[in-house]
Write a structure and sequence with these properties.
Layout lengths: L5 E4 L6 E7 L8 E4 L6 E5 L2 H10 L16 E4 L2 E4 L4 E3 L6 E9 L3 E4 L2 E9 L2 E4 L1 E11 L3 E3 L4 E5 L7 E4 L7 E3 L1 H10 L3 E4 L7 E5 L2 E3 L2 E4 L6 E4 L3 E4 L3 E4 L5 E3 L3 E3 L4 E4 L2 E3 L8 E5 L11 E3 L3 E2 L8 E5 L5 E4 L9 E8 L2 E4 L5 E6 L4
Parallel strand pairs: 2-8, 5-8, 8-10, 9-11, 10-12, 11-13, 12-14, 14-17, 15-16, 15-18, 17-20, 18-21, 19-22, 20-23, 21-24, 22-25, 23-26, 24-27, 25-28, 26-29, 27-30, 28-31, 29-32, 31-33, 32-34, 33-35
Antiparallel strand pairs: 1-3, 2-4, 5-6, 6-7
Amino acid sequence: MPPSKHQTRNRFTVEGLESRILLSAVPMDAVMETDEEPQVYEVQYVTEAAEVASSESGGELYEGAGSLQVVEDLFVSAEGVFNGAGDLLQPIGPGMELVADHITIADGTVLESVSLLANSISLGEVTWAGDSHLDAGQLSLLGAQTALPGATLLLTPGSDEADIYLGQPVDGVAFGLDAQALSLLSAAGLEHLTIGSETGRHLFTIDGLNYSGNLTLQAPTDEGSFRVVSEVLHSGGTLTYVGTGTTQFTSADTLTEGVPVAVNDSVELVYTVGNENEIRIDTTLNGNTAGADISITGDIRGTDEGGGGTLFLNAGTEGTILIGGNIGTSKAIQRIVIESAAEVIIEGNIQVEIFEVLDGR
């Protein structure tokens, strides 16, 4: 059987992008028929020529892989980066950036300040160092994760529009961290875990989030939102939401073991039969009576039932409660209860039937 034909386009050599692999040609004008299999090119340096080629192709060299047609998978181990045929493409090293259809990271691999972009990424037992970014349509954690001091990890779902689940998987949502993945990352000891793009319009479904460490969830642009549908448990670092200012919908409690909750967003309470129209944000879990700060930069809005429901806030004996927006003015809330706080600061207007301060000033 004669070999299948395919088109290959002119390729160019650029200079400057150390440790970066581009797995396709950058499209140019000339096209010819060839029996030659597509080649994998290692780009070591970037010059103005690369920028010109990227501009002419209407895409980018790396961010979003706009001009890249990925042609193969990558396997990464302590020995280096290999293609699907087992050929060594390059050693691994700090600052490495890879683009592929699928990237598999083997057990025993140390990744330092890497950027990985793929349709799917599978992680074996990995040690993290520096500041790393994984951008994938799907992410699988297959082994224990370890972090060296100061290591941070940013996880994004392949596009700003992609939805994200945390805890219980959601039908039709490809990207997320289930309970096992959250447990593995929690045990790693990362300095900070961030989920979501800084320009993301993600819909987060939070159903079984239990994490230890500094955690930031971000969906800060129009149409981004958070839906907290079951109890959130957090310890070991600050839990931070970065939203648009109007988009956190919560029908369940958030409980932390003496660590802060920072909601850079508004909070709207959602009634369910299970919550009986009462929702709690409490930083004194498991006897941590000192508590920690609770901040909500936007408004607090009530439910659609029973006059708007009740929100309980407990920052312990040492935590401050800060509400940056209005309470109950845009959507009625029946009752606010401050169970405990060292200080309560409300910068907006208050319109509630009952406002109780049990222990605070």
